[in-house]
């Protein structure tokens, strides 16, 4: 039986009404952010990094929205993510950042995917697979210019031109990755550019890529052929020392399941780490660390003098967390919200408005990347825009 639109909308409404948290994802803002980044890319092709389920927004929704905006190249971390992206972007170039796992060549070939090769062992295996197939398949070469995670060392990169295996496949992209591009004055940026230039000069004619989200905004950014934004696409600030040029993409609302008064000197939550200084009204939200909201955002101390902790927006009022974030619940202090403006069943904002993903990360002692990529599967997801 095929559902009509009214049935689909009714089912969606039921799910949203039953969910403890509702994740709002603005696909039009995502596409707009991609276009903004393209404008700053200096003529380079603008790809999109859609790893970690498109930073929590959903590969199956985000990739088509970006493709409709004009994106033709995508990067993921894992082969499984690449297969999902291929299903919704049949003509795109799709690179797998975490390298070539042994024996996975047939899967790359079947789905027309491109491994990012970061060691001579991977280069040798990919070349051998291509020889056996009698096909010059495409791959990227990753040169490590300072991260010390994946990639050929710079000395290894300088010898690439002498490797016989290069005749067996097509190097579609030579790439590296900035360590601290969000720190515009960090001298490591210039050192990495210099090292990458040295390797690039030995492989003329091969498209090159270095800038990530923040790298696109560096004053002395290299041009190259392709940029690879990730975090900024989803609303994160690529220029922490300046105003955020990106539109917010993600918002999170949580539902109030109960309200109660606690008396002075009573504690709230596990371990009694938060103490009411006087009579306080507490709202309990149906979201917790099992939904990806970090426990590190817990509030400890006495009401009114908590250390840096999570916040929620309730009927236009900023309310502090009260006590520990638990697995399925968060408690917040809503004493300053008029009783008529907050009741059981209302939703409050955990991400949105002044509570940007960067601010939420700061209050949890982490970064917005972690907030985005931990967004839980239990949320109802409400998508906006993105249509062709």
UniProtKB/TrEMBL annotation:
Keywords: Isomerase, Pyridoxal phosphate
UniProt feature coiled coil, ranges: none
Active site annotation, chain numbering: 51 (proton acceptor), 270 (proton acceptor)
One annotated GO biological process: D-alanine biosynthetic process
Keyword Iron: no
EC number: 5.1.1.1
Cofactor requirements of the protein: pyridoxal 5'-phosphate
Pathway: Amino-acid biosynthesis; D-alanine biosynthesis; D-alanine from L-alanine: step 1/1
Domain Alanine racemase C-terminal per the UniProt entry, residue ranges: 249-384
Residues binding substrate, per UniProt: 149, 327
Catalytic function, reaction form: L-alanine = D-alanine
Family assignment from sequence similarity: Belongs to the alanine racemase family.
Protein name: Alanine racemase
Organism of provenance: Microvirga lupini
Lineage of the organism: Bacteria, Pseudomonadati, Pseudomonadota, Alphaproteobacteria, Hyphomicrobiales
